[in-house]
Amino acid sequence: MRASASLAAVALSALALAVWANQLPTPAPADAPSESFSAQRARADITWIGAEPHPTGSPANELVRKKLIARLEGLGLVVETQRVAGVVLPYDEPKGSTVTLENVIARVPGLDPTKPPLLLMCHYDSVPGSPGAADDGAGVAAVLEIARIFHGSRRTQRDLLLLFSDAEEPGLLGAVEFFKKHPLAKTVGAAVNLEARGGGGRAFLFETGAHSDELIRAFAHTARRISSSSFAAFVYDHMPNGTDFTIAKRLSIPGFNFAFIADPAQYHTAWSTPDALDLGSLQNIGDLVLASVACLDAPVPEARGGPLVWADLLGQRIIAYPAWAGWLLVLAIAASLAIASMRRAIRVRAAARGLGFALVLVVVAALALYAAFALGVLPESHHSYERLLLRCTRFELSLLLVSFGSGLIATRLCLKAADEDAMWIGLLSIGLIALVALQARVPQLTPPLAWPLVVAAVGAVGARSPLGSAWAALTATLSLAMTLSWAHGVYLGVGVFMPVALVIFVVTGSFAVLPLWARASRGSPRAGLIVLALGWVLALSIRY
Ligand SMILES: [Zn+2]
Fold it and tell me: How close is the Cα of 239 to the center of ligand 1, in Å?
């Protein structure tokens, strides 16, 4: 019973830390100081942008454009439009009909007009059927608020170019036309893009342009409440997705791409209304873009060579280091494991036990996660997906229970063949072998493996000391919290429809909690089945 209680205490503290790590800032009030970003001020613009669906070529799109131009002129900016007639929309009916797209462009003068301008990009069109308050009304409103700041109380060195592109949704058409034909495009020195793939949650810095390592290093000093990592950026780079930033990136323009992706029921749906949008997300993306402007306004730092590895520490700030420094983490883990296994008189055979456990855990967790998806979502249909999107947080909670139950069950199964200490040190050794392979090939991917592993290994060294149980609980909580915090981002990115992808986090989560799982499942053999069943019932409830 005591073992179950300490397991529950660690799990709940780690969950609380992970929730805190993903917390949104409070939206600044409309009377916030004029040099700061206020989501409440920007909200007024969301109201007219997201009043109704406004796809490219529609009368509603024209209305949004007119209001946008009036707003920019009201700020005292000179506005121009780039008109491109005869554009064929790829999925328009009747086939072959054409529209005119119109990009809206404005300039906020900086102190030094000889410097290449910084481009702030967002798109003002929506998909048909969605008011698009989030995608990309939030981006438009945020850029307007930032233009107000830098045309009033603060000034940048570079000019700020504002591009409100049209026809992003049918295939980045406005951005393509801007970068292909507009004379200003060739002068751009850096770019920041604002996007949304949902109506809430943290704004992720998920993509970078040229000189990204130097810029991330500079940004890490100033950005707070930031969610970003080299592994997410690496994975995104290998996905087929695109935003307006894709076009800038192809031209080797340095810069950042931000998007918030939680509350996916608001993505391209009728639910994306001004009232539904989470103003905390708007505040978060606004604060981060403001910090980006300050970072990109300075001269781009010199390249220092080698790929950069970075990740956010519990959503607060970015920790960045050169790829070679990853070998120091490898050394620290190896040394910790050597000491921990000597203290326990564990032999090399333990590694085999650890491999056995890792394999059993992967199989059990993958099957259990897939079963949760099957219970809640299958057979696939428009309705089952819609329900899933609306109950996406509940599904996440069910996957958490399923993962935890799977861990308890896998531990219980393996305890019959090995003692828990050998299994634990073995598991951490397998983690280390995987880390060495990854560090040698793709160091950018290592943080979600290396960070929880180093904390767990240090935990294993101290676990036998006089203050051992407190030390073990503390390190287990921190290691698990990091894993849960990153797993949340991956869940929102790909895990909602592909929960089996989260298996990797079940394994990295087990680094710290395996000894707790072992003690708890020995004390209460059915605990794993009970937690798993609770998770499945919760998944099933998504249908009702
Ligand atoms: Zn968009």
Answer: 16
Structure confidence by residue, pLDDT tens digits, 227-245: 999 999 999 999 998 999 9
SS3 116: coil
Instruction: Characterize the bridge pairing of strands 190-196 and 317-322.
Output: unpaired
Residues 405-410 have a mean pLDDT of 97
End-to-end CA separation in angstroms for the chain: 34
Q: Output the CA 273–ligand 1 centroid distance in Å.
A: 15
Question: Which pTM does this prediction carry?
Answer: 0.95
Mapping DSSP to helix (H, G, I), strand (E, B) and coil, where does residue 275 land? coil
What number is the average pLDDT over the span 65-69? 98
Phi, psi of 119, rounded to the nearest 5 degrees: -95, 125
pLDDT digits (tens, 9 = 90+) for 144-197: 999 999 998 899 999 999 999 999 999 999 999 999 999 999 999 999 999 999
d(CA 168, ligand 1 centre) in Å: 7
Q: Is 387 within 8 Å of 539 (Cβ atoms)?
A: no
CA 148 to ligand 1 centroid distance, Å: 23
Structure tokens at 328: 């120091």
Residue 134 CA, ligand 1 centroid: distance in Å: 8
Separation of CA 428 and ligand 1 centre (Å)? 41
CA of 156 relative to ligand 1 center, distance in Å: 27
Å from CA of 408 to ligand 1 middle: 41
Beta carbons within 8 Å of 467's beta carbon, 6+ residues apart: none
Distance from the alpha carbon of residue 488 to the mean position of ligand 1, in angstroms: 21
Check residue 491 and report its DSSP letter. Answer: I
